[in-house]
Amino acid sequence: MLSILRALRDDGPVSRAELGDRLGLTRPRLTGEIERLIKAGFVAEAGMAASRGGRRSTLVEIHPRLRFAAVDLGAGSIDVEVVNGRLEPLVAYRESADIRKGPKAILHRVGELLAKARVEGVYGRLDAVGIGVPGPVSFRDGVPVSPPIMPGWDRYPVRELLAREHGCPVVVDNDVNIMAVGERHGGVARSVDDFLFVKIGTGIGCGIHLSGDVYRGVDGCAGDIGHIQVDAGGPTCSCGNTGCLEAVFSGAALVRDALVVARSGASPALAERLTRSGELTAKDVADGAAEGDVVCIKLIRDGGRRLGEVLASLVSFANPSMIVIGGGLAQLGHVLLAEIRSVVYRRSLPLATGNLPVVLSELSGRAGVTGAAVLASDAAFEQIP
Amino acid sequence: MLSILRALRDDGPVSRAELGDRLGLTRPRLTGEIERLIKAGFVAEAGMAASRGGRRSTLVEIHPRLRFAAVDLGAGSIDVEVVNGRLEPLVAYRESADIRKGPKAILHRVGELLAKARVEGVYGRLDAVGIGVPGPVSFRDGVPVSPPIMPGWDRYPVRELLAREHGCPVVVDNDVNIMAVGERHGGVARSVDDFLFVKIGTGIGCGIHLSGDVYRGVDGCAGDIGHIQVDAGGPTCSCGNTGCLEAVFSGAALVRDALVVARSGASPALAERLTRSGELTAKDVADGAAEGDVVCIKLIRDGGRRLGEVLASLVSFANPSMIVIGGGLAQLGHVLLAEIRSVVYRRSLPLATGNLPVVLSELSGRAGVTGAAVLASDAAFEQIP
Prior knowledge:
Mean pLDDT of chain A: 92
Strand order of the largest sheet of chain A: 6-5-4-7-10
Strand content of chain A: 15-25%
Radius of gyration of chain A: 23 Å
CATH class of the largest domain in chain A: Alpha Beta
Oligomer: homodimer
Number of domains of chain A: 3
Distance between the termini of chain A: 11 Å
CATH superfamily of the largest domain in chain A: ATPase, nucleotide binding domain
CATH architecture of the largest domain in chain A: 2-Layer Sandwich
Structural class of chain A: alpha/beta
Shape of chain A: globular
Low-confidence stretches of chain A: none
Largest sheet of chain A: 5 strands, mixed
Number of helices of chain A: 14
CATH topology of the largest domain in chain A: Nucleotidyltransferase, domain 5
């Protein structure tokens, strides 16, 4: 039944005959399942299919009335979309918000945005909500667990409160996992079963997709690669250890290093930008590199090498079929990618890298909400009695 | 059906009533399945159960006639067992053999040992064979793939030839995976779903058990952690790279380092052993450490630290619930274990290590054959029409 709903969600209206062929279901079995799904309000008839020679088959589609809310909370942003059963966005809001304001304020704002969509007639009621947060989550309990950059959110009952508010199933997951799910649904990892999604933003995290499913680990913190030590003599990390990957290379680390070379004058491109705007971002480093500033290029290469070393270890360990690089620092683009590839291909065994694409995310900013919508719809489908 | 057979294999004779309760199967469903399994020759009646108050239930058991062959090929050894349906060994052979003699010679010897068991009346025919080899394996194709220490074995049709010879299903896997399966069946990882089994022998490898199953990766080489770089300036590895984990710490590396400190006189304990026997083994280092030789203790600690650093990364990535240390170097015992624990607990985030036992294998030398027997029986069970 889940397979029928997923096929209609992902591939659109289809004749009963073709659907049966595609999923390998017998005619009576399929007819029975479709009847149940129509009765449950999840599938609708959609007219007659073109003839395949014999009797014409009726088209079925995911019910056009279905509505899912997809929420992606970042360290400094809220993304909210309401989508239909095909996961097409009907409305999308994006605004700045500091996650450190705490769960009450942030979830209140999410509620206001969803109420606005309802008032505008986008939906009458929601069939499920998917929400990603920038920290570790107990997927089973639907709560954040000791999230380092989310004060006040520890064990806050996000799922329970949203489920009560909207009267529907709610899925809570961490931001990197939902990005991986999104990229597999509509991006470069479409239908890839085993891949790593590496998010390089303020910090660094990794979404792990194994055998077609998100792998979350025993405590839900699998993929927390930002705190792997890459340089015993490196800078102190927010976690208290020294030389963690994200203390050496991440959005925050890159800005820190960029300020040093701008102030020392080692990088004319960054010095000029700092003078002009009074601050520096990762984009300034990317632009400097594009202009040929050697210090900017070196900053990106050094970071790519460190990340590549960690990824080479993970390739030896997990033997995935693809690595996707996403998050804000993916804008460092091909200089970064070239360095990561070079290290991964050199440091892992040929059998594991013979056919291992290392590629940039296609969905970039929309990966998170897309994945949240996928998880929301799956949760709704799984609750059909 | 698989669940019924596994329960009878792992837990022994049981009444139909209790089996139904344990597996959550209705009476008619269970009766039907049991009839099919009796007809297929995999299950037998085993008398009456003690009364539970109502009508007495009949006992069923895994058929006492079932026979599986379990083979564990090491770099320098052949282990062959023939077991019954409860995986109890009926005969066990262990002998030295150099895997580099090539597949024809080695598999011929395996065939001779199995023929000997048949002549001795241990079995009439085999129901399945499980075999582990010391190198990467394409599990799907049943062949070794580019195994570094197994010249002549690349893509050799091990499964096909053994299946033809014995007329039964055959499973081929790598030695570390079968050890992990064995440890989960009858050792310290019993019924643990997510754990890492780290084998430190001549080389280093890792068996990965996720969500209750062996995780093999896309090309079957997941867990190949021996070639993760731990020291850019370290010794050259057999793979051509420098500073790989197993070039820095493994059976071969430890003997190399032990010879250096024995010859230089830095370690009196090792110098004396070298003079006495003309060679050194990992056991000499373990014995030296037990006697308090500080250089021996340092060798083990340094190795444990390197391995611990790699394991800390893998804990951050995979968030397992247990790490099991096995293979020949597990005899380095508690000095090694203490160092690994110290690094892993210090370098990984609290959420992942709050409840993470790092323990020695319980089955040690028998882990491999035990796992091969488990995989063989699963293969036989899965083939029942």
